[in-house]
Specification:
six-stranded antiparallel beta sheet; seven-stranded antiparallel beta sheet; mainly beta; 0% helix; Jelly Rolls
């Protein structure tokens, strides 16, 4: 499932925080990884990122094969179809309980690596990167939320198990 939610943000939103909860059932199979909601700027990307990296940037929560959470970013300086992944300093995502996820992005000044990315899991800071370059295009700003939830099926035999589900709460988005 995936959609781009573009609420009426100020013309130049330079920072935003997305918060939601996710519940994975006790029998949830992590397979070889997957994606959870995140933030984006510029044009909404497809499943494999941006056709033209200068069009926008995104940062989504992900899980890896053993349930380790991470953050995958696509930015205007990286042409990789896989984006950049950073593992969070935490244990595997717990099964059978609600998990609170908060993700904050602060855009960089064009030409400088002074952007910021933070992730909290259940109100504990698990990632803080204070030297991020999301875009060198001064026209791009934060556009909204990528409501992407899917198994990472880019590699052979990597799709979802036959029967699976998870739950999320509504998204809360704060910006300035």
């Amino acid at each position: 499932m995936g959609f781009a939610w573009q609420p009426e943000l100020p013309a130049k939103a330079t920072s935003a925080c997305l918060t939601y909860k996710v519940w994975l059932p006790k029998a949830f199979k992590f397979a070889k990884g997957g994606t959870l909601p995140g933030l984006f700027g510029g044009a909404a990307p497809g499943v494999d990122g941006f056709d033209d990296p200068s069009e926008g940037f995104s940062a989504n929560m992900v899980w890896e094969d053993r349930g380790m959470p991470g953050l995958r970013t696509y930015d205007t300086t990286n042409s990789s179809r896989r984006g950049r992944r950073v593992s969070l300093d935490t244990h595997a995502l717990p099964l059978g309980q609600w998990i609170k996820v908060s993700q904050e992005l602060i855009l960089n000044t064009p030409g400088q690596s002074d952007g910021m990315s933070r992730v909290w899991i259940d109100d504990e800071l698990k990632l803080e990167n204070m030297s991020v370059v999301f875009s060198n295009n001064k026209k791009l700003s934060i556009s909204g939320v990528l409501g992407d939830i899917y198994y990472d099926g880019r590699w052979k035999n990597n799709g979802s198990p036959k029967d699976t589900f998870l739950r999320t709460t509504p998204f809360v988005l704060n910006w300035k």
